[in-house]
Amino acid sequence: MPLYREQGVVLRTQKLGEADRIVTLLTLGRGIIRVVAKGVRRTSSKFGARLEPFMVADLQLFEGRTLDTITQASTLGAYGPHISEDYDRYRAGSAMVETAERLSEGGPAPEQYRLLVGALRTLSQARIAPALVRDGYLLRALAAAGWAPGFDDCVRCGAPGPHEHIMVQLGGVVCVNCAVPGTPRLEPGSVVLLAALLAGDWEAATASSELEQGQAAGIVAAYAQWHMERGLRSLRTN
Questions:
Q1: Which residues form the domain of 58?
Q2: Number of domain units in the chain
Q3: Is residue 160 a part of any domain in this protein?
Q4: Do 19 and 69 reside in the same domain of the chain?
Q5: Is the Cβ–Cβ distance between 95 and 135 less than 8 Å?
Q6: Which of 15, 79, 215, 237 could tie 120 with a disulfide, CB 3.0–4.6 Å?
Q7: Residue in 170, 201, 200 with CA at minimum distance from that of residue 183
Q8: How many angstroms separate the CA atoms of 131 and 179, rounded?
């Protein structure tokens, strides 16, 4: 049973037996993997704390018949405690790792891995509102998966923006002529915020108002639900 090394973000864990856990990871080289961490629920475990959700670790594993097993773990990013100690950061982080798992099934996803690690780092630093970090991550992760939204020109006819109507089904803003009855109309600043979140422009994003952030959050949640075909559990109480 050969050994191998991987970098991975802990997405979630579940109990296995009396002392073990199954750990779901997004790894740099293999995408989503589910592995066993033996003895990590014992107080004497040397690396149990390194395998909590939102942690980034360098791992040594050996291949098993059904599940691989972690034999060593060293911390690359200790983001878990800083995220978990605050309810809003925890909820934002939970939505992010849930999204990462949905978008990264099926093989290596290095861009998704790097996006998630960067977003968790930003979230743990607590310098930017958790909801903004979450929404920026969701938009960029969806774009990396092939569903990049458009917030400048009309996504239906190409008419130059700015536009204030948005249709998540079409992937972004639409002009007045293309908007159908019932199409949401946003504050101009909300569209600017969505574009800033997609671009990772935190200076512009943090300058937005509470109203604009609320409108943008609703659009991001609807856009994510539309493309992933079902809602994120972590966003249901938002």
A1: 3-78
A2: 2
A3: no
A4: yes
A5: no
A6: 79
A7: 170
A8: 28
* Secondary structure class of 235 (helix, strand, coil): helix
First and final CA of the chain: distance in angstroms? 45
Beta bridge partners of 16: 20
Backbone angles phi, psi at 195, to 5 degrees: -65, -40
User: What is the residue whose two structure tokens read 């809602």?
Assistant: 231
CA distances from residue 231 to 56, 68, 109, 131, 172 in whole angstroms, order as listed:
26, 30, 22, 17, 19
Q: Where are the alpha helices (DSSP H) in the chain?
A: 80-84, 87-104, 110-125, 130-144, 188-199, 202-206, 210-228
Please tell me whether residues 59 and 101 are part of one structural domain: no
Residue with tokens 């994003």: 205
Say which DSSP state 38 is in: T
pLDDT profile of the chain (238 residues), mean per 10:
91 92 96 93 80 96 92 95 97 96 92 98 98 98 96 97 96 96 95 97 97 97 88 66
Tokens of 12: 């979630």
Element (H, E) at 16: strand 3-16
